[in-house]
Amino acid sequence: MNQHFDMICIGMALVDSIIKGFDPVPVSASGYRAVSSSLNVGGEAVNEAIAAARLGMKTAILCALGRDAAGDMVKSALSGSGVDTGLILYPEAHSTPVTTMFVQDDGTRQSITNTAHRFNFHPEKDCSRFTCARALLLGSLFRAPFDDPEIIQAVLRAASQAGQLIFADTKLPNFRALTLADIRDSLSLMDYITPNEDEARYYSGKEEPEDMADVFLDAGVRNVIIKLGGRGCFFKNADTTLSLPPYPVKAVDATGAGDNFIAGFASEILRGSSPCDAIRFANACGAICTTAVGAGAALQSRAQVLAFMNEIQ
Prior knowledge:
This protein is an alpha/beta fold. The chain has helices spanning about 45-55, 70-80, 150-160, 185, 195-205, 210-220, 255-270, 275-290, 300-310, and strands at about 5-10, 15-20, 35-40, 60, 100-105, 110, 135-140, 165-170, 190-195, 225, 235, 240-245.
């Protein structure tokens, strides 16, 4: 395999319209107020690629953009952070999705998607575009284009045959719902899966992190990380079970924290770290991300993350 990149991030690319401190009480018949609003590039693949590049990984992204202002904004942000954009696809009649996101004072958020999020691109039609790296990061398992079992299987099979490490981050379904049973043949190809607590509960039907992890492990995934937000995270594989606490920070916006987490985890695994050490680093990446509005605003470098970890200890 020609390992031209350390990792390729594949999945959704979009622009987030982030509204912070929205007041639901109208000030006029058609007017509302908020503390602030901003436009930020987003989408799981974009967030992960930017974070990985800033952490020193030679990173590329495979996503679909429209030839529009939002697409130009995404590509510019990626290039500015050192991400290789040569693999980006521009399907005919595809518009770049824009998400409206409401962020609360504690950093939690709700989002509104639209039909542009349903437009699939087809990475499985040219597997050479994503098999030229040491690792493949699926930013949005269960979201387009990975809400189609045949696409999931084709991409993961090609990555596995190319000897890539496969990291899969999950999302709750929006337009098309799949279950673990629907992608059972693909789960055994995944080296790591990293759902948050809500996603793990939804797909496993369990309430406790260890029980959630066991469902994924029994389905064939090799390593499971359950992201628990303010309670840290839980890791389990066939040999090891551990819980790690979060780093204490004042959260401003949790948008992209999970994406920064998996980018940090994957980058440290590629550097040869143990899962435990990689998770500690990933926890720090996720914590740093929450200290500013927007998924790519706070995390800047690996040196920053290591300094943050040393300061907190």
